[in-house]
Amino acid sequence: MSAPLCSFAVSGHVFEWSxxxxxxxxxxxxxxxxxxxxxGFSHTxxxxxxxxxxxxxxxxQGQAAxxxxxxxxxxxxxxxxxxxxxxxxxxxxxxxxxxADGQLNxxxxxxxKVVAVSAGxxxxxxxxxxxxxxxxxxxxxxxxxxxxxLYQNVSAISAGAMHNLALTxxxxxxxxxxxxxxxxxxxxxxxxxxxxxxxGYFHNLALTxxxxxxxxxxxxYxxxxxxxxxxxxxxxxxxxxxxxxxxxxxxxxxxxxxxGPDKIDAPKELEGRVVSMSIGGEDQIAYLVSSTTDLDQDGxxxxxxxxxxxxxxxxxxxxxxxxxxxxxxxxxxADSNPSDEFSHLSVSAGMDTDxxxxxxxxxxxxxxxxxxxTTDISSGEWKPVPGKSSITVSGAETFGRIQVAxxxxxxxxxxxxxxLP
Length: 421
What we know:
The protein is mainly β. The chain is built from 2 helices and 28 strands.
């Protein structure tokens, strides 16, 4: 049994409370904003705001090795057992990772106009614009054979380990594939007024229009024992191997299942900040957190405070956590580390072989910079250097290098101003 992994992705940042050694591999750098996240058996796939795919975790089948071609042009992702699916902007379904059962080979009918994808342990699903479902890959339990009754009748799909769920256009749940734990025995209350579905490995969740969660199937970890907090005001659901989750309209995340010593609860600091969540195997739980929320109204967005060891619930903008003379808010503006006294915005200068002044400064790809100068510091007047008012660095850079023409008329002093994007 691996150690439980609890991570959350916030505007490109991923955090772990306890580390599964595989899942901790190659966590992406904090250089992009995620719009979707999906947990597989022991890896995670995410879609960034630029339409690029990022992945981390176990990579024994190449399921976390994202081909360069998927750095853009993608609109959805799905993590399966040991494979990953990508849905391109043009409606084509592609993938990478394990393909022993053909789970990366969609049928020709699913070649275009696909609007959603989902991945099971060894099989894959797609939904097209005409409400048709396609399934491929391992078919040992019939999960790869879509029932004819679903023809042009499906509005959402969700793949479990060896079974599938479909939400029909009239608001009922349908299921096919493995029924070893009763996951195909749909309760009566899930036959009408359903707005969302989530297939776990061997259990299912459905969300009613009234905001109540319905669960059925495997209950070995009490993942089908819906707590009172998930019986009203729920707006989103997720299901995995051992856990079930619900996001309430008040921002509270409810987690149930795996009642053993390794049980993972939703971290309190995430309350009111979660946008969506995903659960996989091996106790993987991931949260996508809002990139704009600032519940304590201190001017620093909450995800940045959490990622830098500050409290997102306290107004600490005037604090100087590392004692370097820069307030935590000033460090936020510069995107430097408020817990490291040697991390702050500073400028050093030199000359290159062409006689130009070369300025160096710590830099962040999440900020823009404006270079300013003065020839009389006592005047307090600073002017922007022409052509240097919106300087950026790439995600791979941590230090900026700026060239400016040398001033042959005398003294000149430069400063660098960090700006929020």
